[in-house]
Design goal:
By secondary structure, this protein is mainly beta. The chain has three domains: 24-119; 130-234, Beta Barrel (Lipocalin), CATH 2.40.128.270; 245-351, Lipocalin. Helix content is 14%, strand content 48%. The termini are far apart.
Length: 353
């Protein structure tokens, strides 16, 4: 009986001892202030805090499976220990409807204490899609919905790019838990009307520094530390067909892309293997074939009217020649670009309002 009791006691003691444990990769994060702990590399934790840079700790995880919890403890080159308490179970980040599989409590050197959630590593749904802005601090949602091209942003493999209301922008970014840190963002320098510039200034003021992000039901929310927010929805996949396009520029055959003459409207629609439209004077029609982003437009036929006005008929000839020469299509931010395989633009078009 004594030996049986001693064996039971040893079993219980063995369950209670922390011991070593396999470290599952996790990204832990929290808000107010924005912080993150990267536990994706065994034996290493990388702590990031606002305005303090990052600190690397070396340590290990002790886990009690029967309690579904563990403690990661590590020491830096100098300073105090970092302790991360990890508990399995649904965790809310407090900003969205998203649920994460692990909750975290973090004890920092000096006595500070943080709480948040953890997720498994890997590209979050932030990356890849083009996101279209439908909510922006200080801006009318109806005007945002009507803006053409729409305000957009795309995050992919360390690059961020998009359209901010008047100009295109691009730069770098990095992910830290539920935060995205934007590097310097550069853009074109066009001037637009006041409503477009106001939308652009509001959007660019959000796209700066470190942002908290959350995603729920296909909706992305970006929030600055000051509380300014941008709400975005995943944009539908780009399509060439079934859209009424209005020409904003075409290659005149002399190495220049020019806009339509004042008072003239050039339009076209790709549908069911036929492209039809107006060329400023006459209507036209041609067949086309698609193979991915490759485009082949057959011989173009048109009506034979002669229209008055300086340059109208010359414009028509140049536009139809540019259209027939196009070999590749791309759609970005509601703008259709038809161009040669080498990249030279043949025609630019915006989705008609």
């Amino acid at each position: 009986m004594a030996r049986r009791g001693a064996g039971a006691a040893l079993l219980v003691l063995g369950l209670a001892l922390p011991g070593g444990a396999e470290e599952k990769p996790l990204l832990c994060f929290g808000n107010e202030p924005f912080w993150s702990v990267d536990l994706t590399q065994p034996g290493v934790a990388r702590l990031s805090l606002p305005d303090e840079g990052g600190t690397e700790y070396r340590g290990s995880l002790a886990r009690k499976e029967w309690l579904r919890e563990g403690v990661w403890r590590g020491t830096p080159d100098r300073g105090g220990d970092l302790v991360v308490f990890l508990r399995d179970g649904e965790c809310s980040d407090g900003m969205s409807d998203a649920r994460h599989p692990v909750s975290a409590r973090v004890s920092l050197p000096g006595g500070r204490f943080l709480a948040g959630c953890c997720r498994s590593p890997g590209p979050p749904p932030l990356e890849g899609p083009t996101w279209r802005v439908d909510e922006l601090t200080g801006q009318d949602p109806g005007a945002l919905a009507a803006a053409r091209p729409a305000l957009t942003v795309r995050f992919h493999e360390g690059r961020v790019e998009g359209f901010s209301g008047c100009n295109r922008f691009a730069g770098g970014y990095s992910l830290e838990g539920s935060r995205v840190r934007l590097g310097p963002v550069a853009g074109t320098m066009m001037m637009c009307d006041e409503p477009a510039m106001a939308r652009e200034n509001a959007f660019r003021s959000v796209l700066a520094g470190t942002l908290a992000f959350s995603i729920a039901e296909g909706r992305l929310t970006l929030r600055t530390e000051s509380g300014a927010t941008a709400g975005l929805r995943e944009a539908p996949a780009p399509t060439l067909e079934g859209v009424q396009w209005e020409v904003t520029g075409y290659n005149n055959g002399r190495q220049a892309v020019v806009g339509p003459r004042p008072g003239s409207t050039l339009t076209l629609v790709f549908r069911d293997g036929a492209v039809t439209g107006t060329a400023g004077c006459n209507t036209f029609r041609a067949t086309y074939t698609l193979d991915g982003d490759r485009l082949d437009i057959g011989p173009i036929g048109s009506t034979k009217k002669t229209c008055p006005g300086e340059g109208v008929m010359e414009q028509e000839r140049e536009f139809l020649a540019a259209l027939e020469a196009a070999k590749v299509w791309t759609v970005r931010d509601d703008v259709l670009d038809l161009h040669f395989a080498g990249g030279e633009t043949r025609a630019l078009m915006a989705r008609a309002k």
